[in-house]
Design brief:
Two copies of one chain form a homodimer. Chain A is an alpha+beta fold. Chain A has two domains: 4-76, Glutaredoxin; 87-215, Up-down Bundle (Glutathione S-transferase Yfyf (Class Pi), Chain A, domain 2), CATH 1.20.1050.10. In chain A, 59% of the residues lie in helices and 8% in strands. Chain A is built from ten helices and four strands. The first copy, chain A, has a four-stranded mixed beta sheet, covered by helices on one side. In chain A, helix 1 packs parallel to helix 3. The radius of gyration of chain A is 17 Å and the shape is globular. The first copy, chain A, starts with a strand and ends with a helix.
Chain lengths: 219, 219
């Protein structure tokens, strides 16, 4: 029996962050694809609180929330660091990871899934966040510098899922014209040989999002 | 010149978390009360990104976001730990801190500041979160066990600000009847001799919130 289990869903950017972190560290683990429409008793036993993926189980103890799991992985296993070693740099990485999530990704998602005034408001707020992010990534290959780190992993939604969802709904708050640096980073990230191995196929994501938009349900 | 500066606002629960953490550790620092209606050039130079308090400046380098600052303080200075030492316990503390913020405090705040359907929705969601928290704190003095830790600091809004705001707006999603364990914790927390020293005066908070509700502005 493996001592590390990851409960996930193939289409979840949150799960992919954890998968990539485990693989960056070279941790062996058992991956369990969870049917989110019909959650298994084992999964609900491990995560009765949020009932969401990802859930990492280490020696029988469950951990939830991708941001919490990434900290745990970096603290627990040797191998390449996901967080910078220097406390100040680590603080800045945590700040940018939170910024990407709260001020960019969540708003981009919301802008694509809403309409009218609500869409306009979300798109405007996303644009404000993206402008700041655009400046942060200029002159750098990855947010982590030469190597992929925490902020890159957290920004994975912007790189792969968002462009596909934008096309599916026909609304484009993030374009190469407006955000050339972020777009360049997204290309670098998606084409990175390590990242490529663990990200879902774009066509599969497109079909999933198309169906989700048509049915109004992600599952 | 002090090597540690904290830019804050006396009424901010986020700032109080940081103040209490610095004092738990025994860190000497200069506290600078920032006028949020008329922010100082020095403050904006340190935090041009979010322009929010708290900002901790250590040896000239600024750190923003209270959750990020608390991690930095615990990593940087000796003294009583804010986060548990064991990696799994630390992960669970991070999870509960996020849960308190996202699923309880933010929703309680929103329920008090909104009306009609929006209020009902926020209050219902807050109640769901609080039920889970109610179970987590049963049989414990503090979330951190016998001593105040990360989750207690992050939950400070629930202990002091929320009851006052509830009275000011005349809407009570969190009552002792419904949540006896959380209410007991809130009493323990507010009456703790260390906490008492750093929390704002309740009457001052009441007047500030009353004015905020009347004018629709926090400043």
């Amino acid at each position: 029996m493996s001592e590390v289990k990851l409960f996930g869903a193939w289409f979840s950017p949150y799960v992919k962050r954890v998968e990539m972190s485990l693989n960056l560290k070279g941790v062996e683990y058992e991956y369990i694809e969870e049917d989110l429409e019909n959650k298994s008793p084992l999964f609900l036993q491990y995560n009765p609180i949020t009932k969401l993926v990802p859930v990492l189980v280490h020696n029988g103890k469950p951990i939830f929330e991708s941001s919490v799991i990434l900290e745990y992985i970096d603290e627990t296993w040797e191998g390449p660091s996901i967080f910078p070693k220097d406390p100040y740099d680590r603080a800045m990485s945590r700040f940018w990871a939170k910024f990407v999530e709260d001020k960019c990704s969540d708003l981009l998602w919301k802008a694509c899934w809403s309409a009218g005034e609500e869409r306009e408001k979300a798109a405007k707020e996303a644009e404000e966040g993206l402008k700041i992010l655009e400046n942060e990534i200029k002159d750098k290959k990855f947010f982590g510098g030469d190597n992929i780190g925490l902020v890159d992993l957290v920004a994975n939604y912007i790189a792969l899922w968002n462009p596909i969802l934008q096309d599916v709904v026909g609304f484009h708050p993030l374009t190469q014209d407006k955000f050339p640096n972020i777009s360049k980073w997204a290309d670098e990230f998606c084409n990175d040989s390590f990242v490529e191995k663990y990200m879902p196929e774009k066509e599969k994501v497109r079909l999933w999002l198309k169906r989700a938009v048509e049915t109004g349900s992600l599952y």
